[in-house]
Specification:
With 464 residues, this protein is of the alpha/beta class. It has two domains: 333 residues, 3-Layer(aba) Sandwich (Rossmann fold), CATH 3.40.50; 92 residues, no CATH class. 33% of the residues lie in helices and 20% in strands. Strands 1-11-10-9-8-6-7-5-4-16-15-14 form a twelve-stranded mixed sheet, with helices on both faces. A two-stranded antiparallel sheet has the order 2-3. A two-stranded antiparallel ribbon has the order 12-13. α7 packs across α8, α8 crosses α9 and α9 runs antiparallel to α10. The radius of gyration is 22 Å and the shape is globular.
Length: 464
């Protein structure tokens, strides 16, 4: 009787082990047996994950007092993370050919320690209105860039702050959207010139995850990223909008909060945008219309601003927010990704609706891990006894940092990436450009300086 009862309980109790979706036909990777070794084997993405990312094969149980996706997501906002995962940065400013400026935050700072030229670099894209100060960014960057002798990976990291975010100066009549990949593309060109021997590994959160996934699909085997991980990627913006705008609770809580942050960010940069946008242009009119909005929903903001002034060139201005969502989604690009990509989503994420399971199954370069719990960029768990990483309120830590750090080590230190055909960089009229794509280009400009990672923009659902 006891055996039958045990089997019954095991059959119906919830499982907390992440569900892993692998491709039906694997792609094969050239993989070093050891870091810096010339001895290689041919293996599959599944073998790499099962052999080196063991955390994805084990249970993730959220801490008991943060049981659901809404609460996990909410704790991302109200939790005090100012005393944990401290990260300081050196900021570099890049001027782009279109007149815009990128704020690139590097850690560890040059004054803190010197790393070799071939040290792996984690390239980070943050969430909707965030920046390098966000707690979820620091939670992974801190152990990644901690010296090996102190238990970290000893890597370098660079956070690409969206235009107008985290104090990045606005020098063109354009901010950013979830579909634009050129700013990431030019930041990677800069890194390739600065550290030509360093493997570049992408890390994206939420909207930044969408940008990285789109970039990988657009570039195919020309990606400057050797591999990437994307967390809480929204994938299908049309279906996400239907969920957030079509339900009263989601509309009043999430849609309004996200729009409030976007409107705050736009108002912060409004004076510069007004000066830079020529009168009577779509951008100038969109700015005036959007600044008049009172307590808008997310779609209201995207109708007034994003779909119109997302860029000063085609396909903008667009006819509707839905047209922008259709264009910007990353799920449609999954089939063309040609470098290893680990995707982690939570099934109780209140912001992300549909996941590209079928698309993943058809691409040997992509694995999707879905946790039962975790919310949007939460994944809080109870720390193990004696865990020095867990500080702050009630000693929580983010579970997701463990598989991501395993993924970094598995790819940055072992993956060869022989299938890539990376375009040449050269100087043209004072700009560094990429052969075959000369419309893009950058040059470093004065400014930047020190950035203290825990000092950022506060606000409801900031960075999500």
């Amino acid at each position: 009787m006891g055996v039958i009862l045990s089997l019954f309980i095991n059959l119906f109790r919830p499982t907390y082990t992440p569900t892993l979706y692998f491709p039906t036909q694997p792609a094969y990777l050239l993989y070093r047996k050891a870091r810096h070794s010339n001895e290689c084997i041919t293996t599959s993405l599944r073998d790499v994950i099962e052999g080196h990312c063991r955390t994805l094969l084990e249970e993730y149980r959220p801490v008991w007092w943060l049981p659901g996706g809404h609460i996990q997501t909410g704790y991302c906002v109200v939790g005090d993370f100012s005393t944990v995962d401290k990260v300081d940065y050196d900021r570099k400013l890049l001027r782009l050919k279109d007149g815009g400026t990128l704020g690139l935050d590097f850690t560890p700072p040059a004054s803190e320690r010197t790393l070799s030229e071939d040290t792996p670099i984690i390239v980070v894209m943050h969430g909707l209105t965030g920046g390098s100060h966000e707690a979820y960014v620091r939670s992974i960057i801190a152990p990644t860039c901690t010296p090996v002798e102190q238990g970290g990976l000893g890597y370098r990291a660079m956070v690409v702050n969206f235009r107008g975010c985290a104090g990045t100066p606005v020098t063109s009549p354009q901010l950013y959207t979830g579909g634009h990949t050129d700013d990431l593309r030019q930041a990677l060109m800069y890194l390739s010139q600065l550290y030509p021997e360093a493997p570049l590994i992408g890390l994206g959160f939420s909207l930044g995850a969408n940008v990285i996934a789109r970039y990988l699909g657009q570039e195919g085997n020309k990606s400057r990223l050797l591999a990437a991980a994307v967390l809480g990627c929204p994938w299908d913006l049309v279906k996400n909008s239907e969920r957030i705008e079509g339900d009263l609770f989601y509309r009043e809580i999430y849609s309004k909060a996200l729009a409030r942050n976007l409107l705050k960010m736009l108002r912060t940069n409004a004076a510069h945008l007004s000066r830079l946008a020529a009168p009577h242009t779509p951008t100038a009119q969109a700015l005036a219309n959007t600044l008049q909005l009172k307590s808008p929903y997310l779609k209201d903001f995207d109708v007034a601003w994003t779909s119109v002034a997302g860029a000063t060139y085609p396909p903008f201005p667009m006819d509707s927010a839905d047209a922008y969502y259709e264009w910007a989604g990353s799920a449609q690009h999954v089939h063309n990704i040609r470098v290893p990509l680990l995707c982690v989503n939570a099934s109780d994420d209140p912001i992300v609706r549909d996941l590209p399971i079928e698309e993943v199954r058809q691409n040997g370069w992509v694995c999707l891990a879905v946790t039962r719990h975790g919310g949007h960029l939460g994944w809080f768990e109870k720390p193990e006894k004696g865990d020095r990483e867990a500080k702050g309120w009630f000693g929580l830590r983010r579970w997701v940092r463990k598989p991501v750090l395993e993924w970094f080590r598995a790819t940055a230190e072992h993956l060869v990436g022989e299938q890539r055909e990376i375009p040449e960089l050269y100087e043209q009229g004072g700009w560094i450009v990429e052969r075959g794509r000369e419309s893009l280009g950058f040059r470093e400009v004065e400014g930047g300086g020190k950035v203290i990672g825990v000092e950022g923009e506060a606000g409801l659902l900031a960075g999500l």
